[in-house]
Write a structure and sequence with these properties.
This is ABC transporter ATP-binding protein. InterPro entries: AAA+_ATPase, ABC_transporter-like_ATP-bd, ABC_transporter-like_CS, ABC_transporter_ATP-binding, P-loop_NTPase. It comes from Rhodopseudomonas palustris (strain ATCC BAA-98 / CGA009). Involved in beta-(1-->2)glucan export. Transmembrane domains (TMD) form a pore in the inner membrane and the ATP-binding domain (NBD) is responsible for energy generation. GO terms for molecular function: ATP binding; ATP hydrolysis activity. By secondary structure, the protein is an alpha/beta fold. It has 2 domains: about 220 residues, Rossmann fold (3-Layer(aba) Sandwich), CATH 3.40.50.300; about 70 residues, Alpha-Beta Plaits (2-Layer Sandwich), CATH 3.30.70. The chain has 10 helices and 14 strands. Strands 6-7-8-3-9-10 form a 6-stranded mixed sheet, with helices on both faces. Helix 3 runs parallel beside helix 5. The protein starts with a strand and ends with a helix.
Amino acid sequence: MAPIISVKNLSKTYGTGRKALNGVSLDIMGGEIFALLGPNGAGKTTLIGTICGLVNPTGGTVTVDGHDIITDYRAARELIGLVPQELHTDAFESVWDTVSFSRGLFGKPKNPAHIEKVLRDLSLWDRKDSKIITLSGGMKRRVMIAKALSHEPQILFLDEPTAGVDVELRKGMWEVVRALKATGVTIILTTHYIEEAEEMADRVGVINHGELILVDEKSALMQKLGKKQLKLHLDAPIDTVPPQLSAYDLALSDDHNKLIYTYDTRAEHTGITALLGDIRAAGIRFHDLDTSQSSLEEIFVSLVRT
């Protein structure tokens, strides 16, 4: 199946000489949720802006469903809905008029039923006649999403979609995104909230210094780069790790009640079986054990540290 977005060797150097993108290549498949992670200044917003036709690339190509973003701009842009990081909207317009106007910008005929559905899906229907200026930050963010969906795009870009939104609203917006995916909409999001990517994404891309470090399925990324920890809950606290267990590089918890063993999930042998035998031989008894996997946040931090 051909990708719905294809980025090939994309570069962008601004007039100041700053290279924001450096040979980025990326394929995004239709119907997936793709999360783009990276620190401030990594190139996330420049990449999105270029794909959406808002930033002129220095080199490379971008196609959206086969349409070149430069030579066939109108056809490509019509397929895209963009929710920018900043809140841009007329403060004194009503919610209904703002969203309806956005639809008209794409030359779409009036469709009150579609506008109503979008507003209801985003829990904005009760505020359809309210002026934008009277809305909370979270509601304004949802109005921006409604505007982006007004012309029925196949692709939705969300640049930091839940910035400034409280936890409850953030989870509500996750449900909206999942519902959009269920209808076949392709979703690309950038986020500083690592749990957002971990919760929602099918695939994750990490960008740093304008270069795409890696792209992989979320589960595969965690499997390849994640570490697991085995925690042994001891029957009685110990002062130090016995020297006969030094080969395992064990850590002792602050309360001295747990031994912690970190191992590589990619290794052919984890060493757990031998460890448990050696712990018993050392006269240490434990009554419980549990394992935990490195979070996507820990993986991300390790990748951008260089």
